[in-house]
Write the structure tokens for this entry.
Amino acid sequence: MSRFSSALGGAAIGLAVLAANVPAQAADQMPVLNQAVVTVDKMKSDPTFGPSRQILRSARAVLIVPQLIKGGFIFGAEGGDGVLLQRLGRGWSAPAFYTIGSASFGLQIGLEEARFVMFIMTDRALRAIEQSKFTFGGEAGLTVVTLGANAQGATSTNLTGDIIVWASAKGAYGGLTLQGSVLAPKNDANAQFYGRPLSVQQILSTPAQYPATVPLRRDLATI
């Protein structure tokens, strides 16, 4: 067996062990956590994510949506779930669970799914996202830069904005348009996962070592 296969097998076993020790009420949130780990691993090795690693090192927070699904043919509801983490010193906070939805994300015919990573570069952007629902294009004064996986000439030094979105997609990629889409915390999911109601600010301010969140936080910390 190759080292690569062994590493993947070890990671899968580690995630399975952690999942087995997660309280029953939190189990529903494990798929998005596990897929967020996969997305971060792809960020490390997939060239289509461009300078994402360098951008992350300067980010105040990061929101990872591992799977954005197109719900209909040409038109239809679309959405996905993700996790928001804030940088705390040299590490990362516990994750807050979020959902994003829109009547249309601008996904063209043939595009089945996408994943994206939202790099939150400024404190004012993070504060806006923490406050209940965040509407892309509806937050005055915030600059959102959305780049596709095939963007040419993008480097960590020539990208500026309060929020930088880097997307990777399967199918006929025609760009990811977030204008008008709504990002909101999943309060019920957060309460289930942490065992009590917590605000997004409370979740993001704690470095507590919840075992199920260790793989994601550890992967982010090694970038």
